[in-house]
Request: fold
Amino acid sequence: MLLIGLLIIAVGAFCQASCYVPINKIKQWSWESYWLVQGIFAWLIFPLLGALLAVPQGHSLCELFTADNSFRIWMTILFGALWGVGGLTFGLSMRYLGVALGQSIALGTCAGLGTILGPVMLNIFFPEGDYMSKLTASVIIGVVVTLIGIAIIGYAGAMKARSLSEEEKKKAVADFNFPKGIAIALLAGVMSGCFNVGLEFGSAITFEASAEIFKTLPATFLVTLGGFVTNAVYCLYQNSANKTFADYGKSSLYANNLFFCALAGLLWYSQFFGLALGKGFLAEYPALLTFSWCILMALNVVFSNVWGIILKEWKGCSRATIMVLVTGLVVLIISSFLPELIK
Reply:
């Protein structure tokens, strides 16, 4: 059961790390236009379909949205909106650092803070639940080791920045800017960690009769709903400021662009669908259950760097740089099992 759960989470992580590949196939749309359209699929349509899987026969999703749940619902949506800020800056981190390094720094920060902040915030509002007890020594050590792995990869990125000429940097990542990219990636990571906080607040918004593997999917929908609002407001503002509303009128591009936006959205959502399913198989392993968010983010980093290698973002780097990168990836993979090994 343990290996099945981790494998499902790994598949979701691979899908997430791959979601930016279809975006490169979108034609003649500005960033704000395709970001909004893929967001409709990633943050509304697919999460809603996923949430419906948690609804037992004879019930409806609306039954969960009651006055008794109102505080948790609004807190879940609020942290989703804060996560949406992280989503906006997440894309910028890859613009300035590339897919591999940008995702590594942002997701690493997101992994550590998201894992710790969830129980901490819940304990503040619901101290009777003793949520801090989830943060066992093995979980904290796992988070620390994950952050060490991220730091190693970040150091590999710094080595890359020092070793490549300006021409080589621009060839790999057109707008490469290490200082600006690091600052944006850290901000993206801090805000993105709010996603797991939202999931924690929404964990009780579910049907008792739901299958264990689907129980967190309504909360996932509420978090992404909040994130969609943040992103939609910003994208529509950019459409207005940049006069790019005409993108949506290019009917000849609909077939191509809607297909790749939908594919990107499906791949992105797969990480949280996989997380929900994977948690269902980790119920007997409380340390890994608490650490599951960190596992997902760590594996996202691993697979994003695999794509970075495929996309030749590390081409031209020294053997020492590649060895440091590989070391960081190995540390991240080990961190996925560590809490269970040392509990």
Notes: The CA atoms of residues 299 and 333 lie 7 Å apart.
